[in-house]
Amino acid sequence: MSENKENNKEQQSETKQVKAKQERNLDSLSQTHGKTDEFRPTSLDQVWGDTGTWKYNTMDESEYRSMLETMPRSDLTAHATKLGLVPIDDRNMLIGRLIGEFKKHVIAYRSPKVDGAAGQPLTKEAEKILKEGR
């Protein structure tokens, strides 16, 4: 029975060493999502260097949300009016609408870059069907 205890202790010490090695290895790894952060410009302003921060002073949603949370109600209504929204009495709904407009603005500025691949060529049958409409 004492041999079993010694074997168990040895196995436990080996597993602890392996776990420690795994933890060190995992800390040095970084996870990627496979997407590129390249965006294609959607307007001439973007081609000339406009980053889109002129309207909200930021392009980060969490930063914009924290800015809205710290604003007093009078500043929130003024900000909403400046952006073309009708201010409402409920503070949470107003913040939600402002964030929705912010997301639309960010999406307009961050259109993903499209690859030049055109896709699959049309079959002769598909071309024939499309030519019928002429």
* Count, helices: 7
What level of helicity do the residues show? 55-70%
> What are the segments in which pLDDT stays under 50 over at least 5 consecutive residues?
none
What's the average pLDDT?
78
CA gyration radius, whole angstroms: 28 Å
Content-based structural category: mainly alpha
> What's the N-to-C terminus distance?
91 Å
Q: Biggest sheet, open or closed, and with what strands and sense?
A: none
Provide the β-strand percentage band. Answer: under 5%
Oligomer: single chain
The overall strand count is 0
Shape: flat
Summarize the helix and strand pattern as letters. HHHHHHH
Write the layout of secondary structure elements.
Blueprint: H1 2-28, H2 44-47, H3 53-56, H4 61-70, H5 73-83, H6 91-109, H7 124-131
Helix pairs in contact: 4-6, 5-6
Walk me through what this model shows.
The structure is a single chain. The protein is mainly α and about 130 residues long. It has a domain at about 45-110. It contains seven helices and no strands. The protein has helices at about 1-30, 45, 55, 60-70, 75-85, 90-110, 125-130. Helix 4 (about 60-70) runs antiparallel to helix 6 (about 90-110). The model has no long low-confidence stretch (mean pLDDT about 80).
Question: Brief overview, please?
Answer:
The chain has seven helices and no strands. With 134 residues, it is mostly helical.
Q: Tags for this entry?
A:
mainly alpha, 0% strand, 134 residues, 7 helices
